[in-house]
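User: My collaborator and I are trying to settle a disagreement about how two of our proteins should look. Neither of us wants to argue from intuition anymore, so we agreed to look at predicted structures for both before our next call. Could you fold the first one, then the second, and keep them clearly separated?

Assistant: That sounds like a sensible way to settle it. I'll keep them separate. The first protein:
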Amino acid sequence: MNTNFELYKIFYCVAKYKNITKAAHALYRNQPNISRSIQKLEEELNCKLFVRTKKGVELTPEGACLYAHVEIAIEQIIKAQQELLKQKEMELGSISIGVTESALNIFLLEKLENFHKKYPKIHLRISNHSTPQAIQALENGLVDFSIVVTPTILPSHLKQMPLLDFQDILVGGKQYKELATTTFSLQDLKSYPLIMLGKETMTHSFFSQLFFQNNTEFNSEFEVATMDQVLPLVIHNLGLGFLPYPMAKEALEKKEIVSISIKETIPMRQVVLIEDKRAPLSMAAKSFIQELNI
């Protein structure tokens, strides 16, 4: 049996209104067309579905049995259509984002605020990760996309889109303010305690590679889990630390910390968005990504 879905839709409408004329109006069809469709369905199912009454029609026992199932299916389809329409109009939906602390602070927070003001009914779920963890969360389907800082190591099915260029700077607390008047080499930093992210992070790998390329040993006195933990330790004079300039800017302006010049060039890094090319994005997620470039 290969009954046209449209016949069940017509059957549902007639059963709901118990009147062929009302069903015809609801479906924007003429009455003879509705009657022919019901007759065709009855022929295909080899049973009577309706009996005529003075007020319209009533379901037969066979019709009532069919309606019990068709009603569930049709109403679920209608509900799905309504939800899709709401998603299209950004009145319903959710977005899950994996993000590093650095990317959140120097780029994403303002974008989240603007998006939430524009689409307050979209549910946002933010997961805080290191760059490798954020990439793994995307691989495992736990987030819609991830926003991280470079460097990144990606398999071929993941793609990244640049969002913001930024520069890392070396900073110290007030106890180290005299260092702000001199230019140091990476080699000179061996004499001072360094505060860095843990070895499992790409930021640690980035600076480890920088020191190695300049024939300098890289050791840190303090290791922290997230970038936002570096600044408080620097402010409290526990050592020197490398920070993205946007994260250090306010503390520099307040003169809570000082910027220390080094001879070697620190390569620029980027905040990037990473997507899985194999996984389609929801309308809400697509809209959010569009907002990131505004």
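The second protein, kept apart from the first:
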Amino acid sequence: MPRTSLPYSADDISALARSLRAQLAGRTEPPGHVEWLNMLAKAVGCRNFQHFRAQTTAQTVAQTEAQTAVQDGLGATVDVEPPVDPVRIRKVTRCFDAAGALLRWPPKRSERDLCLWVLWSRFAAGHVMTEGEVNRLLRDAHRFGDHALLRRELCDVGLVDRTRDGSAYRRVEQRPPPEALALIRRLKAASAGEKATA
């Protein structure tokens, strides 16, 4: 399971050292991993590591939200997209062939969601499709032979809406997250380059 990095800083390194010295005083054995985490958290004013993690996560979310709305040179507010992880984009790109067809269904949910956004982008905006049309689109968009899985997943995550009887499907209009947009653009550019060289 991947670990989330938590930034750690102390306003006063001297106070940090004093706190750690006081917490270590009288110990006969060195602290374990969790004890160290709790001691470091207490040294910067938190009750324990769980408190530190909650506080740091809340601060990180607030900073990210503040960075998404900044002012341009004329004083107008503009949205700035959060940074995209290029390593993750490259990893998910390898799930697609040169023509942009999905080769395999990734094991991680976060990677599958990015793949679903790519498929979502291939549905025409505002166009109502029959189940047969959706099946043809999805058969052409993947190579592992399970278009029903993809159709079901698109509906389950809310990217495609269908009528109760399954006779009509429509793409749900929404803005993809930044990583999904980056992946969609990358695959379109790669596919266009492949067609140009063919």
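Some points you might bring to the call about the second protein. The chain has two domains: 13-79, 86-197. The two ends are 41 Å apart (CA to CA).
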